[in-house]
Amino acid sequence: MSLELYLDLISPPCRAIYIFAKMNNIHFNYFAVNLLQGEQHSKEFEAISILRKVPVLREGSFILAESVPILLYLTRKFNTSIYWYPPDIHIQASIDEYMAWQYEEKSCRLGWAGISGSRGPCPCPFLPSLPLPFSLSLLTPMETNTQLFCNHFLKDKPFLVGNVISLADLMAAVELMQPSGADFDIFLGRPKLHEWLLRVEEIVGHRLFQEAHEKLLTIRNWDVSILDPSVRKKILIMIEKMTK
Ligand SMILES: N[C@@H](CCC(=O)N[C@@H](CS)C(=O)NCC(=O)O)C(=O)O
């Protein structure tokens, strides 16, 4: 049965799955869902996932949403290298802890992803009141989360759960890259964080890492007028929440 992945590489969880599948030689059919054009709301995609979000995995009648269970499913089904999610229950718990924190939307993702939403494909045209550079209120959640990431999760370790890469590092690296879509370098002035990113990138492979991030890093060239209105509205609501 063929494995299908529904992804948009502008999305961090999609990039994590894409990189993971490629690194582990997992064969899949790639279905692009263009979020900025609202394809997640199409009837065809809704028939696959009522959640209308990517990533989604489909294998025959088996459909799975949410990046964390998708990654765990792939590690188990394809018996990938043990370091991604080692059997030690304490290590697993630490990986789970990080992934749960990252996906608690009100905390971390909103901060990192919010910046790219605010300056990426939809900056000034409908946010004329938002001065550039970013207002303090937009930067605050991102700075807070980055500090927490460095001080509580990464500390002085080479990787999040010790000496080897794990699913937690992959998920964190693609998320922390998100502000780069808005030309914002979160690694600047944070040498330890930058060294950690380089370690992850080296293991992933520079070419694959760049390939996965190409869409994000060229998003500023997008024509805002082709943005789906429902997507504009969602981004605006998200930014309003953050600037309150
Ligand atoms: N917790 C979910 C998050 C999924 C998610 O929020 N996907 C976003 C892209 S990062 C999406 O598809 N958004 C489309 C929309 O909200 O319309 C996961 O980890 O898979």
Automatic annotation (TrEMBL):
GO molecular function annotation: glutathione transferase activity
InterPro entries reported in the protein's UniProt record: Glutathione-S-Trfase_C-like, Glutathione-S-Trfase_C_sf, Glutathione_S-Trfase, Glutathione_S-Trfase_N, GST_Theta, Thioredoxin-like_sf
Keyword Cytoplasm among UniProt keywords: yes
Signal peptide range in chain numbering: none
UniProt keywords, alphabetically: Cytoplasm
Listed Gene3D superfamilies: 1.20.1050.10, Glutaredoxin
Gene Ontology cellular-component terms listed: cytoplasm
Biological process according to GO: glutathione metabolic process
Classification via PANTHER family: GLUTATHIONE S-TRANSFERASE THETA-4-RELATED (PTHR43917:SF13), PTHR43917
Name of the protein: Glutathione transferase
Lineage, opening ranks: Eukaryota, Metazoa, Chordata, Craniata, Vertebrata
